[in-house]
Amino acid sequence: MMPGWLDSVLTYLLQWGPHHDPPKQNMDDIDDLEDVFELMFSCGWGLVVAIFVLLLLFWLFLYLLSLRNQYNLAGKHVLITGGSSGIGKAVAKEALLRGAEVVTILARNEEKLEATKSELERLITPKLDQRVNTISADVCSEELQEELEIGLSGLPPVDVLINSAGITFTASFQDTTPQDFEKQLQVNVLGSVRPTKVLLPDMIEKQQGRIVFISSMAGQTALYGYTAYSASKYAVRGLAEVLDMELKVHNIRVSVSFPPDTDTPMLQGELGQRSPIVKAQAGFGSVFKAESVARDICRGIERGKFLITHGFDGFLLGVIATGMSPVYHWATLITEVSSLSSLPAVIILFWLAKLQRHVCKFLG
Amino acid sequence: MMPGWLDSNMDDIDDLEDVFELMFSCGWGLVVAIFVLLLLFWLFLYLLSLRNQYNLAGKHVLITGGSSGIGKAVAKEALLRGAEVVTILARNEEKLEATKSELERLITPKLDQRVNTISADVCSEELQEELEIGLSGLPPVDVLINSAGITFTASFQDTTPQDFEKQLQVNVLGSVRPTKVLLPDMIEKQQGRIVFISSMAGQTALYGYTAYSASKYAVRGLAEVLDMELKVHNIRVSVSFPPDTDTPMLQGELGQRSPIVKAQAGFGSVFKAESVARDICRGIERGKFLITHGFDGFLLGVIATGMSPVYHWATLITEVVCLGLFRLVGCVYITLFYNIVRRETKKAKKQN
Q: Which of A103, B83, B307, B310 is the most exposed place for a label (fewest CB within 10 A)?
């Protein structure tokens, strides 16, 4: 019934099984490693451990595969809204370091733009023909299309759009006015929609492009004091999911990042608003450096990830809140499914141990 | 070491006794026994979760968008469950009156039930005043159902920023405003229920619903944070995720649907508003946070459960056990939908 080689392998694994020598059941008899193995295999764990190790190696292989670059920022034109500070600025730096040919930063304040541009230009590698561009515009304005067209004239079309322009706000629901709500939705959602709509037709024509949205951990889970902010960041995630579904056929991929508290001017400004409850809540996580978040984002773009998380807490939350997000790497899917079913998996492992005895009898 | 009756040889299976011997000898019998015990335990917890923690009977239920669709069906269901006052809020006075008459026919004579109408716009700045006027003389609102909402479908490129804004205004802010107006009284009474209507499009991506989906994801996020903030006041929040429901709103949307959206919609079925309303009212009474509809809804609810609060042990056990498998099932659906988009987009390209 079974091929000879399988029979041999199983016999080898089970040769210390109960049908040969009586297993050493008494803990006092454990003198050496061989006895430990005997004990392991006689109670069924040997087979289980062997299978587990094989699966782990398989997952590791798939994980290494997922680290391959599917898309290089080198040579591309990257446009970053909100690019004069915070995460946007850090992404601009990272894009330059990764060889982007043109980095365009968009923001409202011209002085900050110029200051950031100087900072970025110092990172330019002399031998690469890199350029830093600034566009002074408001992502919420109706004139955005014109301003982008003027600002981008003479430049190669935008390959990668990073929607990093956003605002934050924290207060209890009762202290949040409908206007506060509206502002969060306007800037965080519509402020990401507008640039995307302007730059999309060119990407579709080229049948190539990358669009990145910045959500937040508050866009994956509830956090006291962030009714308005959270609503807007959940919306960004939903938008990203639908957009990826609509645009994949054009070879345009979407990614969405879920940063934790990140050390940026925006966070500094928010700290003063925080109530004691929010502070206590924030104590559970740590503040990330913008450079670290930016590195994850650029890596995520290059590896073709949809969900980009940061740190271990971010990974945890990413799996829990994965929902119906598209998954583009087998390793990610396996990680999610096995983490999500870890409890049933443990139960199944015990069943496998039981199965060991039955297999013993078959071979016996 | 082992009792004699557990030893067995496969060739000796002659009768049932041998089968049992075999089952137990390889351990399956024990496993099956444990499994059955766990199942019974889960069943017990599930029956516990069906208990009413909160009765709509005797309560004042206010339903925005209550003159049609899901809102109207919830109004009917609330009356049938003995709500003392049902207030429906909408913009159109004629529809309100017509619905009021329809609802009043459902009033049980012996119960002292009343149906109230308030003509107002959930998006207007005057909502607070209009609510105060409309509710004067009535007992404070116990249950708020934010059923006022709109839908819109088009590809992202065919969706203008104004379309986006409208979805966010009505579906999100139009739920925020009534909640803010009625919350202070609920907090004072340390009692209340607030319900939001999201959508399956608020749990998963569906082609053609960038704006609608964004607004419905936002509603879900809002509901989660609100539940966290308000539980201490004994005010519970629920959020419902209806599929396509047979309402005037759906009828109006059908004409907008592109071939891709139609192909996608074919995977689900259209639910009756009464069925959705019944799930919502049951969910409120049983203290559920996530209210889903039908089997697909249950599936999606588990997959997209994320960090939602869970209030019944049976629900948590179901989620933990099923999540891994359901995520795989979800991926199959995602692949199917992406393929539909690719197929139909290529078809459309050829035609042009």
A: B307
Catalytic residue positions of B, numbered = 198, 212, 216
pLDDT recorded at residue B34: 76
More confident position, A11 or A336: A336
Contacts of B217 in chain A (CB under 8 A): 234-235, 237-239
A45 and A130: one domain? no
H-only helix segments in A207-341: 227-247, 265-271, 276-282, 290-303, 311-320, 330-340
Both A232 and A288 in one domain: the answer is yes
DSSP 8-state assignment for residue A190: I
Which CATH number is A311's domain given?
A: 3.40.50.720
Residue A71 lies in a domain: no
Residue A306 lies in a domain: yes
Q: What is the pLDDT of residues B11-25, one digit of tens each?
A: 555 565 665 555 555
| Mean pLDDT computed over every residue of chain A | 88
Average pLDDT over residues A94-116: 96
Distance of CA B280 to the CA centre of its chain: 7
Question: A355 to chain B: which residues are within 8 Å by CB?
Answer: 26-27
Question: pLDDT value at position B110?
Answer: 80
Q: For the stretch B313-347, what's the b/e string if a residue is b when 16 or more beta carbons lie within 10 angstroms of its beta carbon?
A: ebbebbbbbbbbebbeebbebbeebbebbeebbee
Percent of chain B topping pLDDT 90: 83
The number of folded domains in chain A is 2
Query: Phi/psi class of residue B306: alpha, beta or left (left: φ > 0; alpha: ψ in -120 to 50)?
Result: left
**Is the same domain home to A114 and A254?**
yes
**Is the Cβ pair B176, A178 closer than 8 Å?**
yes
What is the chain A residue with the closest CA to B226? Answer: A227
Structural domain ending residue among the three candidates A15, A37, A66: A66
Residue B111 C-alpha, separation from nearest chain A C-alpha, in angstroms: 35
Give a yes or no: residue A323 inside a domain: yes
pLDDT value, residue A183: 97
pLDDT at B31 exceeding the cut of 80: no
Supply the DSSP symbol for A6: H
Q: Does B331 sit within 8 Å of A333, measured CB to CB?
A: yes
Better pLDDT: A362 or A250: A250
The parent domain of residue A264 ranges over 77-363
Question: Do both A348 and A323 map to the same domain?
Answer: yes
The answer on A102 and A210 residing in a single domain is: yes
Interface probe with B: pick from A239, A254, A333, A360, most Cβ of B within 10 Å: A239
pLDDT of residue B38: 87
The CA–CA distances, whole Å, from A282 to A169, A219, A267, A357, B60 equal 14, 15, 12, 50, 38
Alpha helices by DSSP H, chain B: 16-25, 28-49, 69-80, 93-104, 127-135, 161-167, 174-189, 210-230, 248-254, 259-265, 273-286, 294-303, 313-351
* In a shared domain, residues A154 and A14: no
Q: Are residues A123 and A247 in the same domain?
A: yes
CB contact under 8 A, A343 and B334: no
**What pLDDT, in 10s, does the model give residues B170-221?**
999 999 999 999 999 999 999 999 999 999 999 999 999 999 999 999 999 9
Residue that terminates a domain, selected from A66, A97, A117: A66
- Regarding whether A340 and A273 lie in a shared domain, the answer is yes
Whether A184 is covered by a domain: the verdict is yes
ipTM of the complex: 0.90
- Looking at residue A331, its pLDDT comes to 94
How close B244 comes to chain A (CA, Å)? Answer: 17
Whether B161 sits inside 8 A of A190 (CB atoms) is: yes
